Amino acid sequence: DGGITQSPKYLFRKEGQNVTLSCEQNLNHDAMYWYRQDPGQGLRLIYYSQIVNDFQKGDIAEGYSVSREKKESFPLTVTSAQKNPTAFYLCASSPNRESEAFFGQGTRLTVV
Amino acid sequence: ELKVEQNPLFLSMQEGKNYTIYCNYSTTSDRLYWYRQDPGKSLESLFVLLSNGAVKQEGRLMASLDTKARLSTLHITAAVHDLSATYFCAVDTRNNDMRFGAGTRLTVKP
Fold it and tell me: B interface mutation test: which of A4, A29, A97 has the most B CBs within 10 A?
C-alpha cells in the first residue's frame, strides 16, 4: 500500500542527546515536509524539501537538521541544541502544489 | 513572512446549527488547503482550493477561496457530533512551503 510512514511512534530522549526521526514515503512524491506541533497549537514548519539533495529551512529550523539523499526518505535529527524538543512531530509529502499533502501518523518525542 | 490566521480558535456549537470558520493570510497565494485533525491523530485532507473563487463541498462542509481578499472560509451546515475535531487551513506560497494556521477546535454538542 502507498503511504507515508514515520517511526518510531513514541521516542524518549535524554537531555543532551541527538535523536533521529524517520520519515519514508512510497508515493513517489517530490516534496516532503517536517512540522512540529505543541499541545493545543498549530503546525510550525521546521524544514522542507522540494527535490532530492535540496532542502530549505522553515520557521523553526534552529536545533534541527535534515537530509534528503533519496526521494523516499527525509529523516529529521533533533540535536542537543534544541532546548525544548518535547512535541509531536509530523512528516508530510506532496506530489506538487496542485495537490494536498499526505501526513504520516507522527512521532511523539519526550525529553526525560 | 507569511502569516496565516484562523478564527475563531475555539468553537462550541449545537447540533443542527450552521457556522463559518475564517482563514486569513498575509501574502499572495493561490493555493489553500483545509485539513482535519482528531485528538492525538495525524491530519486528514479535506479540500484543496487552487484558484480565486474556488468552492468545494463535501457533505456538511463547504470551503471557498477569495485570493483578492486573502480569505478562505469553511462553512459548516447543520453540524453533527462527528464533525467535532480541529480544523486547520494551510497556505502554500510559490516556494512550495506550506504554512498552517493555529487551528479551530470545534466541539459539536447534542
Answer: A97
Residues of chain B found within 8 Å of residue A31, distances taken between Cβ atoms: 96
Distance CA B46, CA B62 (A): 10
By the 10 Å C-beta count (0-12 exposed, 13-18 middle, 19+ buried), B6 is classed as buried
Q: How far is CA A15 from CA A18, A88, B103, in A?
A: 9, 17, 30
Give me the tens of pLDDT residue by residue for chain A, a chain 112 residues long. Answer: 679 999 999 999 998 899 999 999 999 999 999 999 998 889 999 999 999 999 999 999 999 999 999 999 999 999 988 889 999 999 999 998 778 899 999 999 999 8
**Minimum CA–CA partner of B10 in chain A:** A40
Contacts of B35 in chain A (CB under 8 A): 100
Query: Could you tell me if A88 and A106 are in contact, meaning their C-beta atoms sit under 8 angstroms apart?
Result: yes
Interface test with B, best of A43, A49, A96, A98 (most B CBs within 10 A): A43
The cell numbers describing A26, all together, are 512510497
